[in-house]
Amino acid sequence: SGDEALKILCNSHIDMIISDYQMPRMNGIELLRIVRKKYPSILRFILTGQADLKATIQAINEIQVYQFLTKPWNNQDLKLIIYKAKEYLDLLNKNKKMEDLIRNQNLKLKDLNHNLSMKVKEKTRELHEANLKLEKLNKMKDDFITLISHEFNTPLTIINGFTSLLENNQQIDKNNLQIFINKIRNGVNRLGEMINDMILLNKLQGGFNFNTNEQVDLKKIIDNCLSILNPTIIKKVIKINFASSNTENYYLNKNELLINKCIFNIIQNAVIHSPNNSKIEIKLIKAEGYISILVANTGIDIDNDLLPGIFDKFTHGQHISMHKKGLGLGLPISKLIVDKYNGNIELSKEKEELIQVKIDFPLNNHKSE
Questions:
Q1: How far, in Å, CA of 296 to CA of 241, rounded?
Q2: pLDDT tens across 46-92, in order?
Q3: Tell me, what DSSP letter sits at residue 151?
Q4: Of the four listed, 12, 161, 211, 304, which is most buried by Cβ atoms within 10 Å?
């Protein structure tokens, strides 16, 4: 009966159903109408001996039967019909699997295209940023070349000028002669300092082995640096406050020439950029595991955008036209020396025009070559 057929369908997987048209309580059209609604993928056949037009139209229109079978049937013909129906179902399943596969492949292709597009955008952005950095670096190198030309040309002009005066004036008195000689000597010394800075920078970048370590007295080094810079300090009326503990010793087991160069560059930079009648504060602080050197001065205001790269080569913290003295290698050299000894150096703006440089040197003897 139709009710029994529906119970079977609830508990079993059925691919096709052949229903008699005439059944008790529920005819074949009514059964297959329910089957079509609940199980639309099942192939539906109707078997009847009443081959009237009305039943045929109703079977086709209402339940969309796969085939209309008449009684009596031929077993061989029925087997062939069922076999073809099975082939049809297999074909539908294959088509469905193919459609699912194509759908999944399209989704994957869409994801791949999206990921590729995102990667292209990311690489384009990285390339754009790299080009901007290269342009900035080229600009900085151009400025540096201009600066080298200016800084080298100044002492060379002095040397050539006073040498010409000596050649063309044989009757120079002793006092003027000494002045000329001092000017020439200062020009030569200035050239030597700049050349030595470039050589030292190259050695530090190339990992040159400065393997001579000795006990370095930081208080003594700072006093010596201030003594060398004293003429400029007096000329600019700069007040120096150097604070350290009288009961502490401030010794490092490092290369003395490198430590001296590092500290001298920082203090000299502060003196050069401090205005007249200003103040420079220098502090030595000893803590567990390290010694800190702090140098604070008032001077030119540094753009916040330049602070992250202030220790890079060719960076002056200002436009090249505002440059005061030197090749701008002092801070990069100091940074490389501090890095060599696994220390830390940072420059910060405490106030609008108050610049502080802090150096932390570890007290252990470990040295990175």
A1: 10
A2: 887 765 666 667 677 777 787 777 788 888 888 898 899 888 888 98
A3: H
A4: 161
